[in-house]
Design brief:
alpha/beta; about 475 residues; glycosidase; two-stranded parallel sheet; 6-phospho-beta-glucosidase; beta-glucosidase activity; eight-stranded parallel barrel
Length: about 475
């Protein structure tokens, strides 16, 4: 029996994580407006399509499928799903609110009551089972109208719309939600701005200007949301959320070491420095100069950012990245969204994501050393092909092995002195993959009978990992076999 001597803190927040656009479905129900996810085509070419100049943000059902439209139909099946989460013993459930359920176009002055009432029902159901919601305010699904009318987060106008949205949900759910996060994987926009910032790269010469101006608007909006949350729900905690992937130098050549350092600072730490420390870091100024970036910063912006920093850092961790200055001739990892080179010491998932549990311990130590605020691993998991046996069972030992090794890494980080709040495994129930729009890329403890061709009954089945994770939670992470 694999029993850890190290203990996670009492009250550690075990649970699972999802996003509205990847699980809810009901994309036209309850007076919901269209969002970015509703126009994302399904399939492995999803990101390639989205990153091409000229993406129209239109639905073309003759050419593409749109799996997010129905997803796994949590919109109608949330009661049964929450009961399954409770059976596993979840302390928390990380979810997001679909912005367009509250403000269908993003610009309305009054919210949509049907959308607000839906989340009332979900939160009430969670609390009836003793589960605290952890809510992401914006998770890759901004209103499509804000993309088309304003060009996404390049426009300063979105700060006002986001602040109005945040205040509405804080006021409505102040007695039901005490853990919040502002923007999901905010730094991921450096590589794929379309889902979180609402625009595709049209011009290589101006892409850095566009992305970092959009970042500034999001930083101001996030700080205003933190301010409103602290005023409306004084006992709540609100964090930022970062896609963290530690950067290794391919070798000990100083040029590669310096390149890895620069990559890590800009990707992993820039957004955290602004949202946690409350100011733009010194290193970014040279980056701005070298990429011809000049930010439009209004009077008072920097004060708002400085005065309203987050309470904790939420992070997703799936992989590390290995970098070298000259990649010509190098073996680039095909599935790695961060464009790293192959690490000879690591194996990869079915989708080419390198598996590196030690990197999670490294990440947690780096973050805590730098910021000294509580950390919360709000995404981590293995996307894999699952097989349903003749008797209906799903034997996913590969997923258990993956999660076990990462939980062990977290335990080591806690022993190192890291203040870790909790862990929510990504895709605790199968859902639509954000990067590929596939159902076959499964993460869950709960299997959903839904397939890439649109077929399936949506029946839920417990995988072997369901029972394993239940034991992990029961023992507060000390028993992992």
């Amino acid at each position: 029996m694999n029993v850890l001597n190290k203990r996670f803190p009492e009250g550690f927040l075990w649970g699972g994580a999802t996003a509205a656009n990847q699980m809810e479905g009901g994309f036209h129900e309850g007076n919901k407006g269209l969002n970015i996810a509703d126009v994302l085509p399904g399939g492995k070419e999803r990101l390639n399509i989205l990153m091409q100049p000229g993406f129209t943000f239109e639905i073309d059902e003759d050419k593409y499928s749109y799996p997010n439209h129905e997803a796994i139909d949590f919109y109608h099946r949330y009661q049964g799903d929450i009961a399954l989460f409770a059976e596993m013993g979840f302390k928390v459930f990380r979810m997001s609110i679909a912005w367009t359920r509250i403000f269908p176009n993003g610009t309305e002055l009054e919210p949509n009551e049907e959308g607000l009432a839906f989340y009332d029902r979900v939160f009430d159901e969670l609390h009836q089972h003793g589960i605290e919601p952890v809510v992401t305010i914006s998770h890759y699904e901004m209103p499509l109208n804000l993309v088309k009318q304003y060009g996404g987060w390049r426009s300063r106008e979105l700060v006002t719309f986001f602040e109005r949205y945040a205040k509405v949900i804080f006021n409505r759910y102040q007695k039901k939600v005490k853990y919040w996060m502002t923007f999901n994987e905010i730094n991921g926009a450096l590589h794929f701005p379309i889902m979180s910032m609402g625009f595709s790269i049209q011009n290589e010469e101006t892409k850095h200007q566009d992305i970092f101006q959009a970042f500034h608007h999001q930083f101001v909006a996030s700080a205003l949301a933190v301010k409103a949350c602290h005023e409306i729900i004084p006992d709540a905690q609100i964090g930022c959320m970062i896609l963290f992937a530690p950067v290794y130098s391919y070798d000990c050549h100083p040029d590669n070491v310096m390149y890895a350092l620069e990559e890590e600072r800009v990707f992993n730490f820039f957004c955290g420095d602004v949202q946690v420390r409350g100011e733009y870091p010194a290193f970014i100024q040279r980056y701005f100069q070298e990429h011809n970036i000049t930010l439009e910063i209004e009077d008072g912006d920097l004060d708002i950012i400085k005065e309203h920093t987050v309470d904790y850092i939420g992070l997703s961790y799936y992989m590390s990245q290995t970098q070298m200055l000259d990649k010509s001739g190098a073996d680039v990892v095909p599935g790695n969204l961060l464009q790293g080179v192959k690490n000879p010491f690591l194996k990869a998932s079915d989708w080419g994501w390198e598996i590196d549990p030690a990197g999670l311990r490294i990440s947690l130590n780096k973050l805590y050393d730098r910021y000294q605020v509580p950390l919360f691993v709000v995404e981590n998991g293995l996307g894999a092909y699952d097989t349903v046996e003749a008797d209906g069972s799903i034997h996913d030992d590969y997923r258990i092995d993956y999660l076990r090794s990462h939980i062990e890494a977290m335990a080591e980080a806690v022993e190192d002195g890291v203040a870790l709040m909790g862990y929510t495994s990504w895709g605790c129930i199968d859902l639509v993959s954000a990067s590929t729009g596939e159902f076959s890329k499964r993460y869950g403890f709960i299997y959903v009978d839904k397939h890439d061709d649109g077929s399936g009954t949506l029946e839920r089945k417990k995988k072997d990992s369901f029972f394993w994770y239940k034991k992990v939670i029961e023992t507060n992470g000390t028993e992992l076999d």
